[in-house]
Write a structure and sequence with these properties.
Blueprint (H helix, E strand, L loop, with lengths): L47 H24 L23 E7 L5 E3 L15 E2 L15 E12 L2 E10 L5 E8 L7 E7 L6 E8 L2 E7 L6 E8 L3 E9 L4 E8 L2 E7 L11 E7 L7 E2 L6 E2 L13 E3 L2 E8 L7 E10 L4 E6 L21 E5 L5 E7 L6 H26 L31 H19 L7 H26 L14 E2 L1 E7 L4 H11 L5 E8 L17 E5 L19 E5 L3 E3 L1 H13 L4 E3 L2 E2 L11 H6 L2 E2 L1 E2 L3 E5 H8 L5 H10 L3 H10 L7 E3 L5 E3 L12 H18 L8 E2 L10
Parallel strand pairs: 24-25, 24-27, 25-26, 29-34
Antiparallel strand pairs: 1-2, 1-22, 3-23, 4-5, 5-6, 6-7, 8-9, 9-10, 10-11, 12-13, 13-14, 14-15, 14-16, 17-18, 18-19, 19-20, 21-22, 27-33, 28-35, 29-33, 30-32, 31-36
Helix pairs in contact: 1-4, 2-4, 9-11
């Protein structure tokens, strides 16, 4: 061996001895095929190890980007939806809804009461009526709002609630007001902000004064505050009980004041399964513990933890409790308090009958609801505020854990596949492995001083690599092919899982608010017996969209299906059987439709719920327009019907196909079936086509303003291509019929009332 000038040259040879036949280009360990542990001199190609892992990284990165492009909407939510607040939170994304009914056991969500608010096209106004985006004070941005309490003062309703501050990450007490029975709410401000977390703000009046009793268990006591200037200024009044009580609820019953609460700091108390009672002659005390305390101490699903203030109805007292079995705040349970004395307590569960959504995460309360506050109005009817969440507790942490696990699986499989197939080596540099007799000794400058545990881990990794290299699997063998295919499939799934967990949010396709309010619409699909399989897929998918209230099926021909048995639907499905097979039936006035907005959508078009919700928002901003997803440009002399590519080439459109469009159900349907349009409807029947073109002519003829608006879907699939039942399967014949319709409609309407509009006229670029 040639002697070098190394200061450590000796028994083991120089640590940078370089044989003459090895010529390296790379200085890093493991980058050269043969001389990875030598310093560079002349030339040597990249090692198979480096190439394998580099190419793997590039490939799976492309897979992740493609999955994100396919799965995530490219359209970002508007700034008005809340930027500073409404951040992802491990405690959830709670919001608040309003319910009305004739009794506390017959409450229906506000959208079922058909309250109108034409100023924002919220007809009906829909839950949630108050969310983190409703908190408009930038000094107190909110991640979520929960624990709602009502206080009625004259004709006004005041809503007190917990708001989790996005900056301090602790609870404050906020307040909003309503003058229209809870349909719309105005944010007033922060009523109480302490140095510790506060929540569950029960507000009541006593001796002509207004008091607030929030939970302050983090401070170690139960405190009472008095209103100095209602509703925003409060002062500390006194400490009621010097214990860290959770969700304390006070109610007057049999001329005494009773307080229900949990204390999770008691020895032996079971979290979310513990309940105690106190009694006092007045709200100020002195408070005495019940003889049976704790009256409950069991599993989390027994409803021990309070879910709101007890209420009286028809002479009986009812207590609300949380079922925390599946997740914290999973659902509400209500108990009839049969016996309540200083010595005895007994309650029996009764049905609450609160409507539950089947839309999962797309519903504002799809996963849990843990608080209700009910009041009887002077009219005798009942109103309640209820909170809800679309995700379970700890969902954010679970997503990160799943994403991390998916990345670990991807890394492990990729490394194992490379080593077993001989494409790569898991090389551990010698300086990471504990010294052995006869090994090459590195200078202290090069050898890092690493912990012993790290050295041991590196040694095990090196041994594992050696074992795997000993089990070399030929890539072209049957075993190699099976292992490669399985590893590749699992790796691709792991990439998709990781991208979804880290970048996919909470997995919900949420609705878009307009001026802080939500609404709902009715879907209308026209079909017949030969397309039943299309319809079943259509109903299952779209019924889960957040703003869909009902799906109406216009049945033109054949034996109608059973609305309950034949469909997997999260909303009511109504079959409207028509005696005559006509495309005009699509726009027939229907008094049973309970929403202002109707979404006409062919049963062979599939798009994401987010695309549908964006279109609904665009329509609510301009409810006098026809808003849809398929633009066309009608022009030329003579007129000719062309596809979307022509409209794109001319940079504009003047017609929206009603096979996927929002419209005003009352106005548009009435105009379509007016006497003035009778001749045009006859043209539709003669050609069995063109009903969408006719609707555009009719609406454009009613206004000098803009009549149509386009929204670009992120993607849409036409399932009619998979079936022989589509009327437009013969594309050229279909276009010829529509050209003839255009000529006849232009004669009936004395010209073409359609005006051209440019693409990209919206600030949010939804019409690109």
């Amino acid at each position: 061996m040639k002697k070098t000038g190394s200061p450590r040259a000796g028994t083991g040879g120089g640590w940078y001895d370089v044989p003459t036949k090895c010529k390296c280009r790379w200085a890093s360990y493991g980058l050269c095929t043969k001389c990875h542990d030598k310093l560079p001199q002349k030339r040597c190609g990249l090692s198979s190890t480096f190439l394998f892992y580099f190419l793997s990284l590039g490939f799976f990165t492309l897979v992740g980007v493609f999955f994100a492009w396919l799965a995530f909407s490219p359209y970002k939510r508007l700034l008005s939806d809340g930027v500073v607040g409404c951040q992802p939170d491990n405690e959830g994304s709670w919001s608040i809804g309003v319910y009305h009914g004739t009794s506390p056991f017959a409450l229906k969500p506000i959208e079922m009461s058909n309250f109108r608010n034409n100023q924002t096209a919220a007809w009906p106004a829909a839950n949630p009526v108050f969310s983190c985006a409703s908190v408009t004070d930038m000094n107190y941005p909110s991640n979520f709002v929960a624990d709602p309490f009502l206080f009625i003062q004259g004709s006004k309703l005041y809503l007190f609630y917990e708001t989790k501050n996005s900056i301090t990450m602790q609870g404050d007490i906020g307040v909003a007001e309503s003058s229209d029975q809870g349909v719309t709410w105005t944010y007033v401000g922060i009523a109480l902000d302490e140095e510790w977390h506060i929540s569950y703000p029960q507000v009541f009046d006593y001796d002509s004064e207004v008091y607030m009793m929030p939970e302050s268990s983090n401070h170690g006591d139960l405190r009472l505050y008095k209103a100095v200037e209602f509703p925003l200024q409060w002062t500390f009044h006194k400490t009621l009980i010097d214990q860290p009580l959770v969700d304390a609820s006070m109610v007057k019953y049999n001329d005494e004041f009773w307080l229900f609460a949990s204390n999770h700091h008691h020895f032996g108390s079971r979290k979310n399964g513990h309940l105690e009672i106190w009694v006092a002659p007045s709200p100020f005390g002195p408070w005495k513990g019940h003889a049976q305390n704790p009256v409950k101490n069991g599993p989390r699903n027994i409803g021990a933890r309070n879910g709101g203030v007890p209420f009286s109805h028809e002479g009986k007292l009812y207590r609300l409790g949380q079922d925390c079995g599946e997740t914290y705040g999973h659902r509400l349970r209500v108990f009839d308090v049969v016996t309540l004395t200083d010595e005895n307590y007994h309650e029996v569960e009764v049905p609450l009958n609160l409507e539950q959504s089947n839309k999962g995460r797309n519903a504002w309360n799809g996963k849990r609801s843990h608080h209700m506050n009910a009041h009887q109005l002077p009219s005798g009817k009942w109103i309640a505020v209820v909170d809800g969440d679309r995700v379970p507790s700890g969902d954010l942490a679970m997503n990160y854990a799943l994403g991390g696990g998916a990345l670990f699986i991807l890394f492990s499989l990729n490394m194992m596949m490379g080593i077993l197939f001989g494409y790569a080596r898991c090389y551990v540099p010698h300086f990471l492995i504990p010294g052995k007799r006869g090994e090459t000794v590195l200078p202290w400058v090069v050898r890092p001083q690493l912990p012993t545990r790290f050295h041991k881990a590196a040694s095990r990794l090196s041994k594992t690599s050696s074992l795997l290299r000993g089990v070399n699997i030929p890539a072209k063998s049957c075993l190699g092919c099976l292992f490669g295919i399985a590893s590749f499939t699992v790796s691709v799934c792991a990439v998709c899982m990781a991208v979804s967990c880290f970048f996919g949010g909470n997995g919900a396709e949420e609705p878009y608010a307009v001026e802080g309010q939500y609404s709902q619409f009715t879907m209308v699909a026209m079909t017949y017996e030969a397309r039943l399989w299309n319809l079943q897929m259509y109903v299952k998918h779209y019924s889960r969209c957040a703003s869909v209230r009902e799906i109406v099926v216009v049945w033109n021909k054949g034996t109608p299906p059973d609305a309950v048995r034949d469909f997997d639907s999260a909303v009511p499905v109504r079959i409207r059987v028509e005696p005559q097979n006509s495309l005009n039936n699509r726009f027939k006035p229907d008094e049973m439709i309970k929403t202002k907005a109707v979404f006409e959508l062919d049963d062979d078009i599939m798009m994401t719920c987010d695309d549908v919700e964006r279109g609904f928002r665009a329509w609510r901003e301009n409810p006098d327009r026809l808003v849809g997803y398929y633009p066309r440009l009608i022009d030329g002399a003579p007129l000719k019907y062309r596809n979307e590519r022509y409209a794109r080439s001319q940079s504009g459109y003047n017609l929206i196909l009603t096979g996927a469009a929002f419209m005003d159900s009352e106005f548009a349907f009435a105009k379509y079936w007016s006497q003035d349009a009778e001749k045009a409807r006859a043209v539709v029947d003669r050609f069995f086509n063109c009903e969408d073109i006719l609707m555009n002519f009719i609406l454009a003829n009613q206004t000098t303003e803009r009549a149509v608006e386009y929204v670009h879907p992120s993607w849409a699939i036409d399932t009619s291509k998979l079936s022989g039942a589509a009327i437009s399967r013969d594309t050229q014949g279909h276009y010829d019929k529509r050209t003839k319709c255009l000529l006849q409609f232009s004669e009936i309407f004395n010209g073409v009332p359609l005006r051209k509009w440019d693409f990209l006229s919206r600030q949010d670029s939804w019409d690109n």
